[in-house]
Design goal:
The chain is an all-alpha fold. The protein has eight helices and no strands. It has one domain. Helices cover about 70% and strands about 0% of the residues. It starts with 19 loop residues before the first helix and ends in a 23-residue tail after the last helix.
């Protein structure tokens, strides 16, 4: 018999119940990110701006050492420590304790813009991140249902960054250091956990019945071979 046999869709497996938290491991970094700001606030209340800066940097270095010992990626660890050091330098430069959070405010505004643009240009960042984690390169984009699901899920993450900007901006303008720390803690790990759960639910409900899941993009009219299967 001539011709090519139709591609068989891989059966649904455990990946259909795999959570984004399992794939992305976003919780650890979110928890770690709250420690230096809390230390900054404690040091600032106890000994002024320099006290806050020293406390934040020392705590950031301790967190970095702990993460390196447990096997986290050195680049990720060093970037986290660098962010703490830059935030401390900004606060020292301006003389305003509230400016310790300026970098966080700017990064959230930039992240919100990046997520929205990625959706508009049909390269939703949630798909990029998960596809990279699964070793799929860009194959997920050739699955229209999966690309659409990732786009909808990406709106959840864009909303988290917009929410942070909406909360942080008035507090930063008013120089409210302690409320900024409280907002930083409340809008880091709890918000990340909520975004992981909600975006995963959005993705699952957006995929049509019978779709084999994130690990198995359905590529119309072609082979789905390659890494990540």
């Amino acid at each position: 018999m001539t011709g090519t046999a139709p591609e068989r869709t891989p059966p649904a497996d455990q990946s259909t119940t795999e959570s984004l938290a399992d794939l992305l491991g976003g919780r650890r970094g979110a928890v770690d990110a709250t420690v230096p700001p809390v230390a900054f606030a404690v040091g600032w209340l106890a000994a002024g701006l320099w006290g806050g800066v020293v406390a934040a940097v020392l705590t950031g270095a301790a967190v970095a050492g702990w993460r390196l010992r447990r096997g986290d990626r050195p680049r990720s660890v060093l970037l986290g420590l660098l962010a703490v050091c830059v935030a401390a330098l900004v606060a020292l430069r301006t003389g305003r304790a509230g400016d310790f959070f300026l970098l966080q405010l700017v990064s959230n505004a930039a992240s919100a813009l990046a997520w929205i643009v990625s959706i508009v240009v049909r390269w939703p960042l949630l798909g990029v991140v998960v596809g990279t984690a699964l070793g799929q390169r860009g194959r997920w984009r050739r699955d229209p249902a999966l690309r659409r699901a990732y786009a909808r899920g990406s709106w959840v993450w864009a909303a988290t960054y917009l929410l942070r900007v909406a909360v942080f901006l008035p507090l930063w303008l008013a120089g409210q250091v302690v409320p900024l720390v409280v907002a930083r803690v409340a809008l880091t790990w709890p918000l990340v956990a909520a975004a992981l759960a909600v975006s995963w639910l959005v993705i699952r409900r957006s995929l049509p019945a019978g779709h084999p899941g994130l690990r198995h993009p359905v590529v119309p009219g072609g082979s789905d071979g390659g890494p990540g299967n």
